[in-house]
Amino acid sequence: MTTVSSTPQPAMQLRELIFGAACAAAVRAAARLGVADALGDRPATAEELAATVKTEPRPLDRLLRALSCYGIFAETEDGKYVHTEMSRLLREDTPNSLRYISLWCTEPWTWDAWPRLDDAVRSGRSVFPDLYGKGFFDYLHQDARESAEVFDRAMTTSSKQSAQDIAGLLDLTGASSVADIGGGQGHVLASLLEKHPTLQGTLLDLPTVVANPDPRLRDGGALASRVRIVPGDCRDDIPVQADVYIIKNILEWDDESTRRTLANVVRAARPGARVVIIENLVDDSPSMKFTTAMDLLLLLNVGGAKHTKASLVSRMAEAGLKVGEILVVNPYLHAFECTVPE
After folding, report:
1. d(CA 258, CA 14)
2. Which helix (H) or strand (E) holds 212?
3. pTM > 0.85: yes or no
4. Residue 59 dihedral angles phi and psi, to the nearest 5°
5. I want to staple 291 with a disulfide (CB 3.0 to 4.6 A). Which of 221, 280, 298, 324 is the partner?
6. What is the 3 state secondary structure string of 145-208?
7. What is the distance between the alpha carbons of residues 301 and 130, in angstroms, rounded to a whole number?
8. Which residue in 311, 308, 309, 313 sits closest to 324, CA to CA?
9. Which phi and psi angles does 120 have, rounded to 5°?
10. DSSP 3-state assignment of 188?
């Protein structure tokens, strides 16, 4: 009698990986259709869900069956569908929703760029100028406004989620001022100011970014009286003095931009100031499948790279920072505690 092993053999595992695009496309379709939002706490048939999300029942059933193979939704014995922990993360109203991250990582331009990965590996450069005749962010804001909006919402969601973890982790006892360098809309800064009522804060980022800060930091916002907003490019200058500098997820450009940013921090800071650098790592991390994929996407779209622990420590040391403790923020982020030498 022939038995079938429950463990996929290498050939089957590789076949499944080769069809990885089908899984990503299925997640994107479910997110765009709002299937997770349509499914409540009771089991529902594909026909019931199709009526809500306005699709044909049989193709929706096929989509849900494919997703359930990955633990995204589950099919009951009587052919209905129920939520799983992962499918709930596609709901827009769930805490720590991944709906916009799912959309961002599967935007139309990604399907043009991924097949060119071998070209990017050969050249070490972004494929965007060849694909679209312009750089990634120029393309995004000039030719793909809907994708730019998805990017903004994905980054906002991700930043809000990590901001609470960072605020809970960092001990800012004794500090009177903190600067969030390249801090986007200031979600991390706002969380730190909420936790420390006497702290003063500065947010520095590009003019188009800081023009729309976290509502808590705007004029009339709950934290506005303790915040200074500085438009600028940290690669050119950092005209800010603070006891603590936060640098999160911005040292993933080309090496020269990273060196200039770190050099500008050291130049601006007083001796003894703390510099906390927070990044995803492509090694020594439980989220390596995710971070290594993001690393390859960075190569494709902007020619950037995620760091290993060693490469990040090396950049800090080259800039003249004294590297101290390395803290785990969450499964996706590490915080490197540094000081500016006396």
Report:
1. 37
2. none
3. yes
4. -65, -35
5. 280
6. HHHHHHHHHHHHHHHHHHHHHHHHHCCCCCCCEEEEECCCCCHHHHHHHHHCCCCEEEEEECHH
7. 11
8. 313
9. -65, -35
10. helix
E-strand stretches of the chain:
74-75, 81-82, 177-181, 200-205, 227-231, 244-248, 274-279, 322-330, 333-339
- With H, G, I as helix, E, B as strand and everything else as coil, classify residue 4: coil
| CA 291 – CA 294 distance, rounded (Å) | 5
Report the C-alpha gap between 45 and 255 in whole angstroms. 52
Whether the CB-CB separation of 301 and 327 falls below 8 Å is answered with: no
pLDDT in tens, 246-264: 999 999 888 888 999 999 9
Residue-wise burial string across 187-212, b where 16 or more C-beta atoms lie within 10 A, e elsewhere: bbbbbbbeebeebbbbbbbeeebbee
Cα 150 from chain centre: 12
Least Cα distance to 167 among 196, 138, 137 occurs for 196
Is the distance from CB of 177 to CB of 204 less than 8 angstroms?
A: no
* Whole-number Å distance between alpha carbons of 106 and 130: 20
Strand 81-82, strand 177-181: pairing:
unpaired
Residue matched to tokens 């922990």: 85
**Which tens digit of pLDDT belongs to each residue from 304-341?**
999 999 999 999 999 999 999 999 999 999 999 999 99
Residue 243 and residue 269: Cα distance in Å, rounded? 8
Kindly report the number of other CB atoms within 10 A of residue 122's CB atom.
8
Task: Tell me the two tokens of residue 325.
Answer: 């403790």
Q: Give the dihedral of Cα atoms 233, 191, 289, 257; nearest 10 deg.
A: 10
